[in-house]
Design goal:
Elements: H1 3-14, H2 17-32, H3 36-50, H4 56-71, H5 73-80, H6 93-108, H7 113-128, H8 130-146, H9 148-157, H10 164-168, H11 173-185, H12 192-199, E1 207-210, H13 217-228, E2 232-234, E3 241-244, H14 253-257, E4 260-262, H15 265-276, E5 286-289, H16 296-307, E6 311-315, H17 319-328, E7 335-338, E8 351-357, H18 372-375, H19 381-398, E9 399-409, H20 418-427, E10 430-432, H21 435-440, H22 459-467, E11 469-470, H23 473-476, E12 482-488
Parallel strand pairs: 5-6, 5-8, 6-7, 8-9
Antiparallel strand pairs: 1-3, 1-4, 2-3, 9-12, 10-12, 11-12
Helix pairs in contact: 2-3, 2-4, 2-6, 2-7, 4-6, 5-6, 6-7, 6-8, 7-8, 11-12, 15-16, 20-22
């Protein structure tokens, strides 16, 4: 071993393993387009298997560093940019990752300043060498001298007034605009915008779905308490939901058997609303999930359907995601999984209940996918909106007269929600059920209690706002699911 390698070996032994792992994860997310929720569990398992000193507390620290740094990226970049001699985009990815990592510890964590700086500089030295580590050291010490409050104030003041909340809450301007517009349509004051955005920076609690007929929610909660040694309780919206106080749900026998699944409570509530919506005269035996991947809603629908003697066709365009649907529904024998473009399914008037949970911007699940806010842009709607229109039209075509179609998106964006429903209402093929009437049978919560819908909207848009449901993380503690229930016109 030559001198340089010996020196590097001695240095690598002293590098803080959790911070090094976090920095490597941030580089993979930034440079290779990796998804944090898929990448991080794998990296943690590998570290735990190779490093016996790596504790559960270390794993939790790494998760906080990676998820927190990714969520707060805009705020951190706005703070770091004036302190760096080069634009962040021109720095090597490991240097950029270490700057964000160090700044996140200083701004948002109770880590001693000296540890946040010195340990992060050591990680930078390990990943990039001595020269770049000096850059990281200089920038982080400049931030310390300036003070975190002053640094944040200067960062906020550096953008136009209407987007300062976007810097404070770390969201791109176009997402700020989308949330502002959706809140305005529901009658919420501008002051609630910061609260709504802040909720996207808070980690979502792990929520399970107890599939009816397979496992009782109370039994599932007790199983979680016994196996995981954490608190567990049922949610307020979906009677099938069980919310965990922590732990790895993968250790639960009910999840391994398919009797239960990990699923946001808002997502469960959307499926239950469709299952309980009133039909016109006729059968209730054939249900369709038009865009079923990864399968959580399809499995929940199938469990409810099985208790009623109904079957579910779960369609998914992606073969890989179709396999996930099969896995989700493994405990049920009334599900048929098909693989094709939902717009191309042949036939008309076949199904009694149709779920159209269309591909969307995913702005409703920013809590779970921290990197997604930096990867999408509003121009993605150029492809998504025609696809959504085609899928909704197909869902209506495939429903029988008197059948019900649920239009569901994990997004509050007006174009993907209210405007899509208003379009098909004006076609005269469907009427809009009052989702709050159906919801009242499922939850004691008063979901209708929102603000005053603004004046000047088209009558159809006003009707859609009055009869469709928008869930919010800052109010309902769920993903921002949008749900509308459409009833296909019956023959006269």
């Amino acid at each position: 071993m030559n001198g340089d390698r010996q020196k590097r070996h001695r240095e690598s032994k002293s590098v803080d393993a959790p911070r090094l792992l976090a920095a490597r994860a941030l580089v993979s997310i930034d440079e290779d387009g990796q998804f944090a929720n898929l990448l991080l569990p794998r990296m943690l398992r590998e570290e735990q298997s190779s490093n016996p000193r790596f504790s559960p507390q270390d794993a939790a620290f790494v998760s906080e560093l990676v998820y927190g740094t990714t969520r707060r990226q805009r705020t951190l970049d706005q703070i770091l940019t004036p302190l760096s001699t080069k634009p962040l985009a021109e720095l090597d990815a490991p240097v950029r990752a270490c700057l964000r990592l160090g700044a996140y510890q200083l701004m948002y964590m109770r880590v001693p300043d000296h540890a946040a700086v010195s340990e992060t500089v050591s990680v930078a030295r390990e990943l990039s060498g001595e020269g770049p580590s000096k850059t990281v050291n200089a920038v982080l010490r400049s931030l310390l001298r300036l003070g975190t409050d002053e640094a944040l104030a200067r960062a906020v003041d550096s953008v136009p007034r209407q987007y300062r909340v976007g810097v404070e809450q770390s969201h791109p301007d176009w997402i700020v605009d989308a949330f502002r517009e959706s809140l305005r349509l529901r009658g919420f004051p501008e002051a609630t915008l910061a609260e709504a955005l802040e909720a996207n920076n808070t980690a979502a609690q792990v929520t399970l779905a107890a599939r009816p007929g397979l496992v009782d929610p109370q039994d599932l909660a007790e199983e979680a308490e016994d196996v995981l040694r954490v608190s567990a309780h049922q949610g307020n919206l979906a009677e099938t939901s069980v919310i965990l106080g922590g732990g790895d749900p993968g250790a639960l026998p009910s999840l391994r058997s398919g009797d239960a699944g990990v699923q946001d409570e808002g997502s469960q509530f959307a499926a239950l609303l469709l299952a309980n919506a009133p039909l016109g005269a006729g059968s209730d035996s054939r249900w369709l999930d038009l865009c079923a991947g990864p399968g959580g809603k399809a499995a929940l629908l199938a469990a409810v359907a099985k208790e009623r003697g109904a079957t579910v066709t779960a369609n998914e365009v992606s073969p890989r995601r179709a396999r996930l649907v099969e896995r989700s529904a493994q405990a049920l024998d009334n599900v048929t999984v098909t693989v094709q473009d939902g717009r191309e399914i042949l036939g008309e008037g076949i199904y009694d209940r149709v779920l159209v949970d269309a591909p969307c911007l995913g702005l409703g699940s920013l809590r779970r996918r921290p990197e997604s806010r930096w990867r999408h842009s509003e121009s993605d709607l150029d492809e998504l909106l025609p696809l959504q229109r085609g899928l909704l039209d197909a869902g209506i075509r495939l429903a029988r007269p008197g059948g019900v179609i649920a239009w569901v998106t994990c997004s509050p964006h007006r174009s993907e929600t209210v405007d899509q429903v208003a379009r098909v209402l004006e076609s005269g093929q469907v009427t809009l059920l009052d989702v709050y009437d159906v919801a009242a049978c499922l939850t004691p919560e008063d979901l209708r209690a929102t603000g005053v819908i603004p004046e000047g909207l088209a009558p159809t848009t006003r009707t859609v706002l009055q009869r469709s449901l928008q869930l919010w993380p800052h109010i309902h503690k769920t993903d921002a699911m949008y749900i509308a229930l459409l009833k296909k016109e019956e023959a006269k």
